[in-house]
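Appendix B, Record 12. Input sequence as logged:
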Amino acid sequence: MQEKQNKEVSRRSFIEKTAKITAGLAVGSALTRTSQAQVYKSILPSRILGANEKIRTGHIGTGGMGRSNLGFVLKRDDIQPIALCDLYRKNLERGAQMVKQKYSDFTLHHDFREIIDNKDVDAVVIATPDHWHCLCVLYAADAKKHIYCEKPLSTTIAEGRKMVEAVRRNKVIFQGGTMQRSGQHFQEAVELVKSGYIGKVAHVETFNHEDKPIEGIGLGDNDQAKWEKEGLDWDFHQGWVEHRPFNTNRWIYHFRWFLDYSGGKITDWGAHLIDIALWGMGEEKQPKSVTAVGGKFVLTDNRTTPDTLEAVWEFDDYILTFTNRVYNMYLPKGYSDHGILFHGTLGTLRVDRGGYEVFPVPNNGDGCEPKKSGPSQLNEPHWQNFVDSIRENKDPIVTVETLHNTTRVCHMGTCAYVAGARLLWDPANERFIGDDEATKKGNAWAYRPYLNGWSLEPPYDRQQKG
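Logged structural output:
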């Protein structure tokens, strides 16, 4: 008991001595990354998490998804956010407003590496734009931080493999953000498929449709100077990808509609849907080939991802499809704007976030019995699973390998779209097979090089001084 009290006194003394930033203070007054890292490393030892201690989190990215995760964390009494980071000042301030309703002692940061260097942080919560997931995970894993990372895992297949290796090498707990796996009705639906309730399944459809106007997201705003006054850091935001002129559509939220940073709907909603499809059909099964057709046929905005897409993956004993159209969300009555359809010899199972339903198919005997279930909680049990995994030092429901597998299948679809051809897949080497131009193009997209001084090998920032 005395040791714990001394530890807490030491922490409080450290907070006072290092002028820790609390809610309401300006981000600009934050300690520099270098000086803060030196203070942390010289004063505080690595923290050993006690059975009843709170898990102290650092939140990297406090935009829409980041604040959603922050909300789930703040509902719990066994997790305490102690550090927030975002490149956009307004997002950081919004996150701080949330935290200070419950806690007064937390820091604000512009550079995520300041959170990594804080030895008080037990786990990081990563909700950055997709192209920053990898570096945040690599830094966090090497610092022995547990990790909660949003989907998709990565922006390239090359990144995903490095992330798996880093997590396992450093023996940290990793929970992926595909929280549907923690939903009871999704678990029941997957078990029905696995148990053969709807017979042999040879076709799985996934879909997500929208009702956006033809103007889409518009053409954005190119006035970089105006947004810099609001806290924009455009060079840092772009990171390792090829740097482009500023446009607001390439920035907050809409970054996902640009191939430089993401894959569009196939890695956005598709990651959630394809994840359940792969889970139901057996994740040990790997695609043999992938084809994707589509284009930007309707919208007049400046996105570079398609507004119409159909991707098909061929496995040994089934095919998987993903369909998206941005401008028309018509579906049969009773359907949501998203879902998964498992088509078996005895019936079809449709599942989405609103529940699942089994529709018998009587052409093979009597089919199966109808079955139906409503929605279930997703995020709450998912966070509970993460906490339990940290406490018990066990793998959570969405391991880094699980999220890499799902994300890789999504990226295969984007690679086929970029290549404009059917591509054959070598799962052992995680590359497309062949020497033709389309295959070369697909592999080049899957293994895009890091630019601007960033690297997938340590030191990850080759330009960093000191």
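The longest strand covers residues 201-209.
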